[in-house]
Structure formats: structure tokens, C-alpha cells
Amino acid sequence: MDDFKLIKVERIEKKGKKELIIHNPTTLKLIGEGSQGAVFQLDEDRCVKIYVNPNAATKEGKALEAAKDTHIVPRLYEVGPNYVIMEYLKGPNLKDYLKETKDIPESFTKQIIMIRKELKRVGFIRIKTSIGHFVVTEGNVLKALSCSSIKSV
Question: What number of CA atoms fall less than 13 Å from residue 46's CA on the CB side?
């Protein structure tokens, strides 16, 4: 298996805009990128998110750990100095799903409300609910990505 630790992610400012620079000397497939870093598929069941800021990896790891019993976030496998290894969720994000279907099932609305309530219940203080932060998994079950901030314990 390729060593994901060789991957470097940095953010630069170019003409007043922030841009993510990804140096990937491996054959690992890039499956997503955002303001905090880039996600690569490790195998059929796992992916790794490489963060620009190591503190973000620590926070994300704590958030996924806090929500692990809710089954509404990816399973956490490992947290490193600038990365988090988590469950690879198969399916489109909700934004892409809605572009394709042009319809939001009532069950999705109920699930989003339930996810927000569950995350608040386990101690989240800031919850990202943009449609890009949900994945539509098998059976039209939504799971939350980038859960956001949790209170320190």
C-alpha cells in the first residue's frame, strides 16, 4: 500500500484567493478536497484526510470520537499529527445527489434534523449542515462529514 504520509497539503494565497496545493507522490486516489485539506481513498473501506493545519486533524478526530456511538458520522480508525483515517462512505454527497435527482425526499429532511439534534446532544457547539457535508449512503441513509467543533472535555 502507498504511504499516505508522503502526501503534503498546503494552502497558499494567490491573487487574493486561498488555494489548496496538493503534492501526491503516491497512487492513492484523491476523492475530495476542501478548505481544511484533501481526502484520499486508502482501500474499499477507509480513507485518509490530510490537513493543512495539524490542529484541525486533532479537532476532527475528537469530534468523530465524540459522535462514534451515534452512527451518523464515519467510523474513526486513527488520528495522526496531520491526518485522520476514517470510514470511506460510498455514495454521492447530498449536493451532487440533489443536482442529479432535483428532489429532496422528506426522509432526508428528517434525517438532517435528527443529525443536528444528535450532534448537539453529544456536545457539538458549531455544526456544519451545508449539503456538501452529507453523504447519501446505501438505503438513502445520510451521514455527516466534517462534523465541526465540539466542546473541550
Answer: 13
The angle at the Cα of 145, spanning 67 to 131, to the nearest 5 degrees, equals: 130
The DSSP result for 103-123, as a single string, is ---HHHHHHHHHHHHHHHHTT
DSSP 74: P
Query: What distance in Å separates the CA atoms of residue 75 and residue 89, rounded to the nearest whole number?
Result: 9
Alpha-carbon distance of 126 to 133, in angstroms, equals 13
Strand partners, 62: none
Question: 12-59: per-residue pLDDT in tens?
Answer: 988 888 899 999 999 999 999 888 899 999 999 999 999 999 999 998
Torsion of CA 37, 90, 85, 11, to 10 degrees: 0
Largest CA distance in the chain: 44
- Dihedral through CA 142, CA 140, CA 50, CA 125, nearest 10? 0
Q: Alpha-carbon distance 66 to 150, whole Å?
A: 8
